[in-house]
Amino acid sequence: MSDIVFRTPTPADLPALCELGRQTFIETFGHLYAKHDLDHFLVTVFGPDGMPVEFADPAYAFRIAETDGQMVAYCKLGPPYLPVEDDGRSKCELRQLYILKAWHGRGIAQPMMAWALEWANAGGWQDMYLTVWSENYRAQKVYENYGFEKVGDYRFMVGEQADHDFIYRKVLRS
């Protein structure tokens, strides 16, 4: 097995990054949705008006993990989208951190989270937010181990289906 390389993706990586996004979402959650809801979500999030637009926006940051030239994980950070209180604190959001199932438990999540927290701290953000599915207990535990705390509930829409997600926050600075 080759080493895992972590790097910032380039525009040439965008098609593979969008495909990885689709693949990891389907692997993780695809069984939960009707085909039309899943298809709508995938086109909206990873199609031409989704991830490519965010990729071109300097307010977003991306990181990938790859081995032998194949992407196996990615992380996306950006401006806040979640409906959280406007308390005057600066906020960023961990939008996605997905790893292909075959690569779970191989030491990818830790460097990705370290990068995400470094990015947020370098940007001077006071709080980092994210959502996690209410039944994804493994991810909840991981985020709690990083100091995130549940601060609310969120209806995450996949097509016309609303999932019960939790909103988590990590205070980065007072």
TrEMBL record:
Q: Which GO terms describe its molecular function?
A: acyltransferase activity
Name residues in a coiled coil: none
Q: Indicate the enzyme's highest-level EC class.
A: transferase
- The signal peptide annotation in the UniProt record is none
Provide the alphabetized UniProt keywords: Acyltransferase, Transferase
Mention any Pfam family matching this sequence: Acetyltransf_1
**InterPro entries from the UniProt entry:** Acyl_CoA_acyltransferase (IPR016181), Bact_Acetyltransf (IPR050832), GNAT_dom (IPR000182)
- What EC number(s) is this enzyme filed under? 2.3.-.-
User: Domain N-acetyltransferase: where?
Assistant: 4-173
Name of the protein described by the UniProt record: GNAT family N-acetyltransferase
